[in-house]
Amino acid sequence: MIELRNITKKFKDSIVIDDISMKIRDGELVAIIGSSGCGKTTTLKMINHLITPTRGKIFIDDVDIDTMDQVELRRGIGYVIQQSGLFPHMTVKDNIEIIQKLEKKSKEEIEESTSSLMDMVGLSDDFLYRYPTELSGGQQQRVGVARALANRPEIILMDEPFSALDPMTRISLQDELIALREKINTTIVFVTHDMDEAIKIADRICIMKDGKILQYDTPEEILRNPYNEYVENFVGINRIWDSPEYIKVEDIMIHTPVTCRDDFTRFRCIRRMRERNVDSLMVVSDDGTYEGIVSRRTLQRVSNLKLRVKDFMYTDRQTASPDENILDVLKIFDEKNVQNVPVTDENGKLVGLITGSTLIATLSQQYLTEEEREEEEGGTDHE
Ligand SMILES: Nc1ncnc2c1ncn2[C@@H]1O[C@H](COP(=O)(O)OP(=O)(O)OP(=O)(O)O)[C@@H](O)[C@H]1O
Ligand SMILES: [Mg+2]
């Protein structure tokens, strides 16, 4: 685990990092994001002791990094920067192997490791004897990542490693990084300007502003509950629509659907529907367990007035759970061709209802402009 405890950094009189604390768990990928000059690079460089904090302490696995051997510390931490930082006068092979050679490992061992690293970052061994200038930007970054991995570090720091690349290369390197994480269990601190990138690759995102941490949480939490307006704007108001999997059933469901019990008569059902102005009733038992649905259409077909809800309710309707996402529910609507989907908790209790119109109302939000949204929110206040 990496822990920053009350870190402050001043350059001359200006405070660049202002009393930040954060923990990064083993094997986690944390993205640090924030506008230019907010202190991202400074934070990274303090972790590998290229910069010393003015105040506060940094611990790696509970050891104060001030007390560690600095060369060893840095060898245990891979560092990837924007322009790959490869040595121009060395071949790809030498670039990757330089640190291992310093450690006097056997040639065979090193070459085998190099070959597997090339494989990991998606480069063929044909590139080994080329020089950095003979590679594309994306290939150089891959070599940069391979070099950072060469010493099997427990931690890799990546400072905007993909930002100089064209969008396609960038996306494919992001995918490579995600795939790589399946194979290695390295802790990664990844600085980026790009929220899409952070959301895509990070387990947690740390949003910084003016040397402070505004919010440090999972992509999902940041999208759903931005800490303040700055974060919201930074994330982008409609951003959540780019990640609809983060919109949960409980966010959009009707929390108090109109219900009835299974001993209701047809007449009583119709009356309740009319009073409450709905087209269907959720049938629940006394303890709130979901049992089925009665729709207006079903009622129209019931001719025997002695029948009760339990005789004609519909029990096969697929239900959703509150933590499922909006895409799962859209699929139910689409595949089952239904008008609504009851929401039940893990004990089978009815906790909500999603109707076609709830979905449309939610989905249409993404097309509203900010002013329209404000008007709408203002409007609901008066209700
Ligand atoms: N060696 C230094 N001496 C004085 N000021 C510095 C030094 N290094 C960084 N700074 C200042 O500290 C602040 C934070 O710099 P830092 O490089 O950490 O920002 P950043 O978030 O990485 O920005 P960017 O996104 O542009 O890379 C900036 O205002 C910068 O000018
Ligand atoms: Mg920087």
**In CATH terms, what is the fold-level topology of the largest domain?**
Rossmann fold
Instruction: Give the name of the CATH architecture of the largest domain.
Output: 3-Layer(aba) Sandwich
**What radius of gyration results from the CA coordinates?**
28 Å
Q: What is the CATH level 1 assignment of the largest domain? A: Alpha Beta
Count up the helices: 16
Strand content: 15-25%
Number of strands: 15
Describe the structure.
The chain has 383 residues and is an alpha/beta fold. The chain has two domains: 2-244, Rossmann fold, CATH 3.40.50; 250-361, Roll (CBS-domain), CATH 3.10.580.10. 38% of the residues lie in helices and 22% in strands. It is built from 16 helices and 15 strands. It has helices at 40-47, 70-75, 92-102, 107-120, 137-150, 167-183, 195-201, 219-224, 229-235, 249-252, 266-276, 296-301, 309-312, 326-336, 356-364, 370-381; strands at residues 2-11, 14-24, 29-33, 55-60, 63-64, 77-80, 155-159, 187-192, 204-209, 212-217, 259-260, 280-284, 290-295, 340-344, 350-355. It has a six-stranded mixed sheet, sandwiched between helices. A hairpin with a 5-residue loop joins strand 14 and strand 15 (350-355). Helix 3 crosses helix 4 (107-120), helix 3 (92-102) packs parallel to helix 5 and helix 4 (107-120) crosses helix 5 (137-150). The longest helix is centred in the middle third of the chain and has 17 residues, at 167-183. The radius of gyration is 28 Å and the shape is elongated. The chain starts with a strand and ends with a helix. The site of adenosine-5'-triphosphate has 10 residues, from helix 1.
